[in-house]
């Protein structure tokens, strides 16, 4: 039976209708809170990639939702107001801290849940010991990796690393209850905080496509699946097409890449040739998952568990990934992890040849 009141804060639109994995996980969490509490006050955010899903946002009968739109001008205002905070934290504090203060002053909450650390700064730090924070990835790890790039993005990564170093470890030490998605992230967090209790909440509710059969597989179709508004996904596709796919096609001329996911940049699409198909938004990946020969996750940056790889593996798709792409995922007979290009290429060729044999059987 439902009882009590909860405050649910998500740094991103919590909806299972959004194709991005983090939004779907947050949407599943909101469904859980709506099923357990009599009243749930929801505070969340839309950005350019999720604004079209705002009208489809599922507002449960017992929830009261407030959505804030993140724009470039508001990001700039937040950076001027809070120059020492990580930018993702700053813009959310800038937009919603006053609203959350009013909610906390007007209601007694049985639980305060924050999804994604970027939203924690909305809550006054004196109340952090009362917060249950679910961490999706460690910002310091994300920006340290980005900061290694010799590019404008690398400069941004180095600036954000400095901001995160001054804020994130303190936040992780002081929050009352802490959950994360993998044991690996828990180990990273304890490196900042020292010994502390961290709940491991493995991701659930992701796409699983059943029914792959050899005769329905196109062995030469290589699938990358991800939200293309994320730079690390686009960079992974471009790395694969420039550095790996030509060598694969030298052995198997029919091999081609399907880069599936919403919001591919025009510049990236123009940088690839006819052996790459960019699908844009797909309502469901079922057909792609059923027909692809192999999946790839050649990520060079990013942090946290990659839901796309779990979706491949649970759907029975042989998958080749870098260490970053396979981060936090237990060993699996279908998962092959390589960071050097030559090994990545050889394994892709071997798996495609195997798919050719089984599809003819």
Description:
Helix 6 links the parallel strand 6 and strand 7. Helix 2 (72-81) packs across helix 3, helix 4 packs antiparallel against helix 5 and helix 7 packs across helix 11 (341-360). The strands form 2 sheets. A 7-stranded parallel sheet has the order 3-2-1-4-5-6-7, sandwiched between helices. Strands 10-9-8-11-12-13 form a 6-stranded parallel sheet, with helices on both faces. It starts with a strand and ends with a helix. It has helices at residues 21-36, 72-81, 87-106, 139-147, 152-174, 183-193, 231-251, 266-270, 286-291, 307-314, 341-360, and strands at 5-10, 39-46, 63-69, 111-115, 131-135, 177-180, 199-200, 218-225, 256-260, 276-280, 292-297, 319-321, 335-337. 41% of the residues lie in helices and 19% in strands. The model has no long low-confidence stretch (mean pLDDT 91). It is globular, with a radius of gyration of 21 Å. The longest helix has 23 residues, at 152-174. With 361 residues, the chain is of the alpha/beta class.
Short description:
The chain has 361 residues and is α/β, with parallel strands linked by helices. Helix content is 41%, strand content 19%.
